[in-house]
Every structure is written in C-alpha cells, then in structure tokens.
Write a structure and sequence with these properties.
By secondary structure, the chain is mainly alpha-helical. The protein is built from 28 helices and three strands. The radius of gyration is 23 Å and the shape is globular.
C-alpha cells in the first residue's frame, strides 16, 4: 500500500493542470514531458519511485521510436512558443533554458549518439537494469516485486530481438562489453532474484523459474549472435565530431567552454596534480610513518567499515560547519555491485533516493573487494574509504540529490545536470582535505590527489574520443600513463566514455566553475562569508548548470552568454 501511495503521489504531481502564468506554463510543459519520458522508460520510472510501469521494459520497435520522435518535436515546438520576454524573472529565464536542455539532451541521445543502432549494451542493459531496479530497493512486498520481475524477465526476449533488428551499425568495442556483461551477469537473474522468492506463493515461484530460464536463454542467444558477428562489426567509429561535441557543450550542458577550452582545463589541471603529488612526497618524507590501512577478513567486514567511516565524515562536517545536513536525509548503505554491471562500472556507482520516492535511503555499489581484484578503484579503497564516501555519500552525491529532490520547483526537482553533480562531489574530496579531514591519513590525501589526476586525464580522453582525435586503444594508453591505472580499469573507463561523450568532463569542469562561484561569494560577503552558507545556498538551486546559478545568484551573465553563443540550428 505504501508503494502504491508513493506512485499515486508522484503521478499526481506530474498531472496537475496548468494555471495561466508564464512560470506555471513552463512547469506544466516540464510536468507533461517528464511524465511522458518515464512512461517511455519504465526502468528509469522505477528508479524514480514511480511504480506504474514496473511490469514493463522499454519498447525499442521502429514504430514506437518514430512515434516518440514525433512527440519530442511537439514538445520542442511548444517550448519555442514559450521563449521568455525581456521582463521575465531570472528564475523563469533559467527554467526555460533548463527545459530546453532536457529536450535537446534527448534529441542528442537519439539522433547523434544513436545507441539503438550502435550500442549492443543498450539492450542487455535494459534487461539487467530492469531487474536491478526491482531488487535494489524494497518499494513493495517480495510478492509484488517478484511479480514485477517475472513480467520484465518475460519482456527481455522481445527487447533483445529488437536489438538484433535495430543494430545496423554496431560498434565492435561496445559489443564486446555487452558480451562480457552477459557472460558475468547470470547471478543477477538467478541468485539475486531467488533471495526475494522464499516467501512468495508456490505458483509465483514456478512462474519465476520459467521466466528466468527464458530470459537467460535469450541473453545467451543474444551473446552468441554478437560473438558470431563480432569480426564484422566496425571498430571505433564512435566519434561525434568537434562540431557536434561543441554543440552539446553549449546547448545541453550550458558550458561557457568549447572543446578546445575544456581540453586546456584538463591539461593545466593534470600538470598541477603532478606537482601536488611531488609536494605530498616531500611531506611524507618528513612525517612519522603512517599506520597501515585496515585489513578485512570478509566482504561483510569491508562493507561494514565503509558504513562506519561515513559517521566519521558526518561528525567532521558538523563540527567544522561545512554544510547543513537536513533532517530528512536517510541512511546510506554500502553494497557490492552486481556482476552483470561490473564490466561497465569498474569503479562502482551511487544510487540516490528516487526522484519521486518517499524512501530516503541511498546506496553505493562498490566493486568486488577480494584480493584477486587489483583494479584502480579497489586499490584506492584499500588505502582509505573517506574520499570515496565524501564523493558518493555526504557531502557528495547522496546529500546533493536528496536536497535536489526536495526542491519545490518541479523544473529544478527533475533537472539532472551532470556537471553540477559530479563537480560538487569532486570538489568535496579536495575541500574536505583542505579543511583537515585527512590530516592524519596520508593514504586519503594521496587518494584525493590521485583521483584529481584521474579526473584531469578523463577530460583528455573524453575530448579526444568525442572529436575523433583519439582512438580507443590510444585512450586506454593515455589513461594508463597519465592516470596511473591498470589496463582493465582504463579499458572500462574509456569504453564507457566512448558510449557517452561529454560525461567524463563533468568532474573537473564542474569543480572549476564551483570554485569560481565560491570566490565570487567570498569577495562579495567579505568578513561575513561562511563556507556553510555558501554550500547551503549552492545546493538550494538543484542539479542545474553553474552558468545558470551564476546568473541567478550574482546577476553575472558572462558564463551564460558564452554558453549561448549562436550556433547552427539543429533539427530533429
């Protein structure tokens, strides 16, 4: 019943009729577009706390895709009639740009990235994420969730068949990742689902068993289909080109930088980070020997250590008045990443509370910690978990998204700007170091600096892959040399960024803009400046581009004007 009420509340929020004011007309468009988008993406709806579509997977048929593009054009044409007048408030002008960014981002994914035609992970990922979204959060009884899982397992063969039809230009490297995901991912469909099944009815258990066999058979058949054709798939060919990439930076991310400027930011930061490593070497040479990092005799003890360490960060934040932690913030849990997703997410990932869910809990999915796993991210965690927790938990993603999902403005509530979210989380790692959290933890300090170097390297890879200046093997080698990471992690990172150009730059470009805002606020406030007040005000805007915040907060249109430089119109 509780899950049903949550879903009803969310859908009600997305269905209120619009009053006539300009702002409310903007909100009404965003409400209808968001509701439509979740209806087309059932797995995303489940993650958001909307449970009307839990028995479905996405429909990738040509007829449905054509219909969706027509609807997207209608939303875009409607927005064109809502361009703000000269007298519109700063808030409304920015809300208009946020909605435009949402629509342009969807067009970019459909018409430029073209994952349905090029990326085989799109289809096996729909199956695995569809199940993962059901099992990772207890939004309903086990009986209901198993029933939902059965329906999605039964839908999986259709999704995979649609993949065979749609994949007219598959990228070989993406197909290899899809094959590996399927090879390593059967436990998500079996062991993980079976753990929910003991208390369900015998007839439903029988349905689950049948649906599991059918889904796994289809996945293995899809893998065989990919493997048999792997040599015929084109290697590389995933670059979007500099012109399209610059369009994305300006039009979707509202960045004041083009690809050349972004690349320069990465080069300058990489040099700075190598200098920081040298300074840290000097510090260590004249400091007492550090205590060895903790060792763990089981997976459970490793995960429990993560959760205990979060309490240490929270105490530090409160004592140093760094940011206000609202009373509605829920628990943050640490669990292992499912094997089905390990190849695509070698460093793990964070799952925040649902956008429209009343469940305030968050999760960080960490990679397998066993001694055989020598990947970069696991080795970093063995030194210290504090920087990773600061990034993924509090004050990072978990806190930031929790606050964004309490924003009363629907447009700010639903907008998902990766530059803001990753910039905030990345900024927090160094900010906590400068504030003294790692004063007696050299492993944590080294991790922060190494991760700074890693994020700077990501910029070179992202720009190089997206513009066509760098091949995937060259990107992997660049990662290994400049970020100091192993081949497997470099391959996973580079391939993921090739699939999603523009994401890897989020960390450093966001942090760079955030620090500029901090300087502006400190100059304005003088002796009254408070770091906690700055952070609280920053988070109040939601997950939106820093250029819009600078305009709303400081009345400075410089970044915004740079991001709105006239570009050739794009049709879709």
């Amino acid at each position: 019943m509780r899950a049903l009420l949550v879903a009803v509340t969310a859908l009600t929020l997305l269905a209120i009729e619009s009053p006539p004011s300009y702002h409310d007309r903007l909100v009404d468009l965003e409400r209808r577009y968001t509701a439509w988008s979740f209806a087309q993406n059932p797995t995303a709806a489940t993650d958001a706390g909307i449970h009307e579509y839990d028995t479905r997977l996405a429909d990738y048929s040509a007829k449905t895709q054509a219909s969706q593009m027509q609807q997207l054009r209608r939303y875009r044409n409607e927005l064109a009639l809502l361009q703000p007048s000269a007298g519109a408030s700063a808030h409304d002008r920015m809300d208009y740009l946020l909605i435009r960014s949402d629509l342009e981002a969807e067009w970019w994914n459909r018409d430029v990235i073209r994952g349905l035609q090029r990326n085989p992970t799109f289809y096996e990922g729909e199956c695995s994420n569809g199940i993962f979204s059901i099992v990772k959060r207890q939004y309903a009884s086990d009986e209901v969730r198993i029933r939902d899982a059965v329906a999605r397992l039964r839908a999986c063969p259709t999704v995979l068949q649609q993949g065979r039809t749609n994949l007219t230009k598959p990228v070989r490297e993406f197909a290899q990742i899809a094959s590996e995901d399927i090879r390593d991912g059967s436990s998500l469909y079996t062991t993980t689902l079976d753990a929910l099944a003991p208390n369900v009815s015998p007839s439903l258990r029988a349905q689950l068993s049948s649906a599991q066999r059918a889904a796994l058979s289809s996945l293995q058949a899809y893998r065989r289909w990919l493997d048999a054709r792997m040599s015929t798939f084109s290697p590389g060919g995933f670059a979007v080109g500099r012109k399209q990439y610059d369009w994305f930076l300006h039009r979707v991310l509202l960045l004041p930088y083009d690809s050349a400027a972004v690349a320069q930011i990465g080069r300058l930061e990489l040099a700075r980070d190598r200098a920081l490593e040298a300074w840290e070497d000097g510090r260590d040479a004249h400091s007492p020997a550090a205590s060895p990092p903790p060792s763990f005799d089981s997976k459970q003890s490793f995960l429990a250590y993560y959760e205990r360490s979060l309490g240490q960060i929270v105490s530090f934040i409160n004592a140093h008045q760094i940011v206000t932690i609202p009373p509605y913030i829920g628990a943050f849990h640490i669990v292992e990443v499912p094997k089905a997703l390990a190849a695509t997410y070698p460093g793990g990932f964070m799952n925040p509370p649902g956008m429209f869910s009343s469940d305030p809990q968050g999760f960080y999915f960490v990679p397998d910690f066993s001694p055989t796993n020598q990947s970069f991210f696991v080795q970093q965690a063995r030194q210290s978990v504090l920087p990773l927790l600061g990034h993924e938990g509090i004050p990072g993603h978990f806190l930031q998204f929790s606050e964004a999902y309490h924003n009363p403005d629907l447009i700010r509530h639903v907008h998902q700007d990766g530059v803001f979210s990753e910039g905030w989380a990345f900024y927090g790692e160094e900010m906590l170091m400068r504030e003294g959290l790692y004063a007696d933890d050299p492993g944590a300090r080294r991790q922060v600096i190494h991760l700074m170097r890693h994020r700077a390297t990501r910029i070179g890879v992202d720009v190089g892959l997206a513009t066509g200046a760098m091949s995937l093997p060259a990107a992997i080698a660049y990662f290994q040399k400049n970020a100091g990471i192993d081949y497997a992690t470099a391959r996973g990172e580079a391939t993921r960024f090739a699939m999603d150009p523009g994401q890897a730059i989020d960390y450093l470009t966001g942090k760079t803009q955030l620090e500029a805002l901090l300087a502006l606020d400190r100059d304005r406030e003088g002796g009254s400046f408070s770091l906690r007040n700055f952070h609280d005000r920053l988070l109040s805007f939601g997950t939106v581009p820093y250029s819009t915040i600078r305009f709303e907060w400081f009345g400075d249109a410089g970044w915004l004007n740079a991001s709105l430089t006239p570009l050739a119109p794009r049709e879709f």
